[in-house]
Amino acid sequence: MPINLTEVAKDLRKSMTDAERVLWQRLKAKQLDGLKFRRQEQIGRFIADFVCFERGIIIEADGGQHAVEKEKDEERTQWLHSQGFMVLRFWNNDILTNIEGVMEVIRSACVAAPSPRPSPTMGRGC
């Protein structure tokens, strides 16, 4: 039986990691240059931690499990790139100890990213 990613995304929003919570406090409510970010958003067969459809940027907060899941992460990143997204990955520790530096990288990527973006429904049929 296929997994219902909508329900998985809802559960992930309820149980965010500390790093995701810290990052969300800086991204929500259009605080970053007026850009709208969504959290735990389904894109194709994946769930992105954070996405700004307007700029086509996905932000992933990676915990220790990602050190051993490099192949899966690379496959995921390649597919997201093929759908027109830029993927920014940050280690949870970096988010928790250097949030200003992380935000500056995100802000720079948002400024450099082209706009307008295609419809937010892009890639959802996969």
Helical segment count: 5
User: Radius of gyration from the CA trace?
Assistant: 14 Å
Helix content: 40-55%
Strand content: 15-25%
Unreliable segments (pLDDT under 50, ≥5 consecutive)?
A: 122-126
Describe the structure.
There is one protein chain. By secondary structure, this protein is α+β, with helices and mostly antiparallel strands. The protein has one domain (5-112): VSR Endonuclease (Endonuclease, Chain A). 42% of the residues lie in helices and 20% in strands. The protein is built from five helices and four strands. The protein has a four-stranded mixed sheet, with helices on both faces. Helix 3 links the parallel strand 3 (57-62) and strand 4. The two termini are 16 Å apart. Residues 122-126 have low confidence and may be disordered.
Give the SSE layout.
Elements (H helix, E strand, L loop, with lengths): L4 H10 L3 H10 L10 E6 L2 E7 L4 E6 L7 H13 L3 E6 H6 L1 H14 L14
Parallel strand pairs: 3-4
Antiparallel strand pairs: 1-2, 2-3
Name the descriptors.
126 residues, 20% strand, 4 strands, globular, alpha+beta, Endonuclease, Chain A, 42% helix
Short description:
This protein has 126 residues and is an alpha+beta fold.
